Amino acid sequence: MKPTQEIEALATEIAGAARTIFCTLFENGERYYYCTLFTTGEGHAPSISAWSWEALERESGRQEDSNDTPGSTIADLIKWSYADSPYCSFEDENFDDVKQLFMKRPSVTELAADERNCEFEFRLKAMELAMKMLDDEGLFALNQPRESVCVLVEVMPPDEMNTEIALRLNRAESPAMQAWLAEAAE
């Protein structure tokens, strides 16, 4: 199988799992502004995270009740944080088959530098293509206009490649992308 076909095959598997998860999540009818697939610098299989305006209000209110920081300050701090979202790794068991596919691939940490970079890039390209597939299906416009949601593939800890991917997945002039670039881009 050629590298492009391999990327497409893996992306199709990732998209299938992510579609199931996002569709289940979106059944709550909330208005989403952030949807991401995130991975680590080791290129582990992805998980999803998402924020809706409703979840941000609930979570910042909950945290405000437990300390002296105003809810608006908390909201600013957690707005783009995949890890602080109540939807971080939502229904992650749907990625079990994808995790098996990633485990069958060469281990990023055991490869020489050039091979490591190629394998890591391969995995990120598959994740990005998966999110593009879902976007092309209209998935991210189910509860809100597409221009209101920032669709991402992120490496954690944050890396400047996150911004490069974000600019390919979103229209730079969209309100959600403009907000993300101003408030969270690396």
SSE layout and pairings?
Blueprint: H1 3-26, E1 32-40, E2 47-52, H2 53-66, H3 71-78, H4 96-104, H5 113-136, E3 150-156, H6 161-169, H7 175-183
Parallel strand pairs: 1-3
Antiparallel strand pairs: 1-2
Structural class: mainly alpha
Record field, number of beta strands: 3
Low-confidence stretches: none
Tell me, what's the shape?
A: globular
State the order of secondary-structure elements, H for helix, E for strand: HEEHHHHEHH
For the sheet with most strands, the description reads: 3 strands, mixed
- Helical content stands at 40-55%
| Estimated radius of gyration | 17 Å
What is the domain tally? 1
Strand content: 5-15%
How far apart are the first and last residues' alpha carbons, in Å? 35 Å
